[in-house]
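Try it yourself: sequence plus manganese (II) ion, in.
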Amino acid sequence: MKISFAKISVPPQGALVFGVTDNGKLGPEAVKLDKRANGSLSRAMKAASFKGKKEQTLEILAPGGTKLDKVVLVGLGDLKSLSETAAERVGAVVYKSVAKEPSATIVLDVLGGAAAGEGVLAAHIAGGVRIRSYRFDKYRTKEGKDEKPKLKTLVVQCAASASAKTSFASVSAVVDGIFFTRDLISEPANVIYPASFAARTKALAKDGVKVEILGEAAMRKLGMGALLGVGDGSARESQLVVMRWEGAKNKKAPPIAIVGKGVCFDTGGISLKPPSGMWDMKWDMGGAGVVAGLMCALAKRKAKVNVVGLCGLVENMPDGAAQRPGDVVTSMSGQTIEVQNTDAEGRLVLADVLWYAQERFKPKTMIDLATLTGAVIAALSNHYAGLFANDDDLAAQLTAAGQTADERLWRFPMGEEYDKELRSLIADMKNIGGPRAGSITAAQFLQRFVKDTRWAHLDIAGVVWNEKGTVLSDPGSTGFGVRLLNRFIADNCEG
Ligand code: BES
Ligand code: MN
Ligand code: ZN
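Structure, out:
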């Protein structure tokens, strides 16, 4: 879709969208149109009790006295509380009403005096249209023309069109990142496996990301026995992707490390999962998908920060070479792990990648994302991701970024009493705790591989995939985490 910004000049034909604030009053351009259309806008508003509440829409087809195909009124609510993310949600509902039009014009003649700034809000409304337009339809060969969206050109008109255009550049960079993530997550596991995932990240090189890929031989040399053990039963080679974005003035300044669990398919291994819903485990690489999409967003908006993204990519399969329950593996840190359940594999992958990240990059802050436990879904459903941290300030910064970005986090406790559950009779630890507090014991396991680095772990098992869809996405992958971490970095780590 081609999105452009222009000063207000209402076209006589096609599909028009007008923003309406919550006093229910039309802006000056809409009032003019209403007159030309013999009052059909105001009559429709009255008939539908349309009051301009946030995300409320009203569609008026072929209004009399005009050559227009469609007029859509969209509620912006109270301009004082119209935040950037609220504007994105407005854009998303706009998309739903004009998706079947070849082109549309959004007229924002009511944004003057908005608290967040007219240009910024217009940019985020446009960004919301783009976010909602994502569709993973490459494998649908029989879809009729009328079922497919048609929107190709979108013009956003407002008085501050120049500033809208400028802020749209970075909004759109983040949308590119979200799409990169959604694509990786939506692909089935016969298409996205460790090597093909790694190959896709190479595309980020054109935006200035340095991409390195380590195969099994390199990882064996480094002593990554925990990660490699998970891939033992797979015909696909495990991979470690290291992506570096050096955007700070001092390219040598210690980076922020973002680490992702990339289990491209999780059968559970020999501790095999039940068949129902097992297909879900194609998105068990969601953490790694977010890391790759975040790197894309940061590079495209030329963020002034050094960030290293690391993806531990494996496939957890049961075959004659697979690791067995009870096997003992030696991690890169030297600590030994008794693998009592081969389905608790994400933590084994992260153990080595977290250690490697710290040894090589000495990051000042390290954040990992992982679809780590079913228990976090039991606790929070799909409304929040679980947050675990060894630093209160970092936890507070991430929680705040989650509020602003509308990708919310809820912090869980950690402590000695949970850590004890990982004791093993024959090794330094086992990879599972007891039947309770499964998300916390998983986080305790990870913490055993964190030195004195400021660290946070995000358990995103409940939010990576949404089978009903959200305001911003069709049913399927959400891209949750890209906007959150982009916000966290923009607010706390740049400049
Ligand atoms: N990938 C799963 C966690 C998961 C489950 C993500 C459902 C999304 C939806 C993870 O590898 C796993 O299998 N965890 C086990 C851990 C248990 C064996 C200690 C779990 O949560 O049941
Ligand atoms: Mn598992
Ligand atoms: Zn898993």
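One thing you can check immediately is this: The pocket of zinc ion (ligand 3) is lined by residues 263, 266, 284, 345-346 (CB under 6 Å).
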